[in-house]
Write a structure and sequence with these properties.
Elements: E1 2-5, E2 8-11, E3 23-32, E4 36-37, E5 42-50, E6 55-60, E7 63-64, E8 72-74, E9 80-83, E10 92-100, E11 103-111, E12 113-124, E13 128-130, E14 135-144, E15 148-153, E16 156-161, E17 164-167, E18 176-184, E19 189-192, E20 196-201, E21 205-214, E22 224-232, E23 237-242, E24 245-246, E25 254-256, E26 262-266, E27 274-282, E28 285-293, E29 297-306, E30 312-314, E31 319-328, E32 332-337, E33 341-345, E34 348-351, E35 360-367, E36 374-384, E37 404-406, E38 423-425
Parallel strand pairs: 4-12, 13-20, 30-36
Antiparallel strand pairs: 1-2, 3-5, 5-9, 6-7, 6-10, 8-9, 10-11, 12-14, 14-17, 15-16, 15-18, 18-19, 18-20, 21-22, 22-26, 23-24, 23-27, 25-26, 27-28, 29-31, 31-34, 32-33, 32-35, 35-36, 36-37, 37-38
Pfam family, one: Ig_2
Protein name: Ig-like domain-containing protein
Keywords: Disulfide bond, Glycoprotein, Immunoglobulin domain, Signal
């Protein structure tokens, strides 16, 4: 091109490039084998178009595709992408953008990679169910195409197939480990899930305690007893309670059977009396039985109480003595004076007008009709002249003196003799 500027002629040169618009962009896919199988197959994607192509750009699932060493490579002109071997992450939509300075076109193709099953997982809402419940198990598997699923119980294939297994209703016989087999017909691969445990239990009911002992009735220090807990249903745990507290074994005296079904007590003591409960349960239900254990004991701690002054009453004053003892069942009481004369029965001894002859040693003897044991205590009482006690009569609680406790003991077991007499002075 020549131009005259003023009187000077100048010349410029330029290059004119003519481009044919790009069009009909398309991707062709070639691979072996067909279908593509992850880890085994290779594939190539070739981008073709009409027109003057100056650049090619590859995209996978909306992101720029970059070469990956030894696995994804590009031809020198960027026309072909080769993938060897294909993996499951190579699946998806591929686009090829071809362009020149005046036009652009885009072709696309979808790459299907068959893989798996890479996993098989069984899920279930809970491990434990009551007999008669409806139970649903689900199996999922990562696979393309979707895997065929078949169920197994304790390793044995069942007829049931598909992603869902229904136990309707659940029976105890259907307890066990459920797993599923996943199979991909394209890859010819199998995958077995880990088992999911299902336990179907009968609800516990009708809990009750039975008591067996010898002799009957139970006598502290002599008898032994066993308490047995029975119930219907599937029992997984038994817990024993006594008077609201957990019952624990006691070395050599209170023992539990291996299955916790029976508690044995040998020999029973008075502290063993009370309410016993047996709580039976399984993960879906519970029940409770109770029974009261009566232990006969005593009499123990026989005691005389009265009113008055220092173990003395004035002539003509009222004598009022009361006797008590710890005993089950309640014991009977007999009163004697000076060890020979029986002067009354019952827990109280009352004489309205005392005389000098009422002075002496008062003995209260307690007798338990079940244990056949006797225990007694003594009180020395003096009748004083009128006015000598300052007008006070009877016995004060804190002024009882000369009490002698003697135990009338039954013949020793197997010996036939008498135990030594035990006395306590206070």
């Amino acid at each position: 091109m020549t131009m005259i500027i003023g009187q000077v002629e100048k010349e410029w040169k330029t290059t004119l490039r003519v481009f044919e618009r790009v069009s009909d962009a398309a991707i062709t896919i070639a691979g072996s084998p067909d279908p593509l199988i992850a880890g085994k197959s290779s594939v190539s994607l070739t981008c073709e178009a009409k027109g003057s192509i100056t650049t090619r750009k590859w995209m996978q699932n909306g992101e720029t595709l970059s070469p990956e060493t030894d696995r994804i490579t590009f031809s020198d002109d960027n026309r072909t992408v080769s993938i060897s071997p294909v993996q499951k992450e190579d699946r998806g939509e591929y686009k090829c953008q071809v362009s020149n300075p005046i036009s652009i076109a885009e072709g696309s193709g979808t790459l299907i990679v068959n893989y798996g099953p890479d996993s098989a997982v069984v899920t279930v809402k809970s491990e434990y169910y009551s007999s008669g419940d409806n139970v649903t198990l689900n199996c999922s598997s990562e696979s393309s195409p979707a895997a065929q699923l078949q169920w197994a119980l304790n390793g044995t294939l069942l007829d049931e197939k598909g992603p869902e297994l229904r136990l309707d209703p659940a029976l105890t016989s259907k307890s066990g480990g459920y797993s599923c087999w996943a199979y991909n017909s394209k890859t010819q691969r199998y995958k077995l899930s880990s088992p999911a445990s299902i336990t179907v239990l009968e609800k516990v009911s009708g809990a009750a305690i039975t008591i067996a002992g010898s002799p009957d009735p139970l006598i502290a220090g002599k008898s032994s007893v066993s308490l047995t807990c029975e119930a219907k249903g599937s029992i997984t745990t038994r817990k024993w309670m006594k008077n609201g507290e957990t019952l624990s074994p006691e070395s050599g005296r209170i023992t539990f059977s291996d299955d916790n079904r029976t508690v044995s007590i040998s020999s029973v003591q008075k502290e063993d009396r009370g309410e016993y409960k047996c709580q039976v349960s399984n993960p879906v239900s519970n029940a409770e039985g109770s029974e009261t254990l009566i232990v006969n004991y005593g009499p123990e701690k026989v005691e005389i109480k009265g009113e008055g002054h220092e173990g003395a009453v004035e002539f003509g004053q009222k004598i009022h003595l009361s006797c008590s003892a710890e005993s089950v069942p309640d014991c009977t009481y007999t009163w004697t004076l000076n060890g020979t004369d029986e002067i009354g029965t019952g827990a109280s001894f009352i004489k309205e007008n005392s005389v000098y002859e009422d002075s002496g040693n008062y003995t209260c003897t307690a007798f338990n009709n079940i244990t056949k044991e006797t225990n007694k205590t003594d009180l020395e009482l003096s009748v004083k002249a009128p006015g000598s006690l300052g007008g006070q009569g009877g016995l004060s609680d804190g002024a009882i003196a000369g009490i002698v406790i003697g135990v009338l003991v039954l013949p020793a077991a197997g010996g036939g003799g008498l135990r030594p007499k035990i006395q306590q002075h206070t």
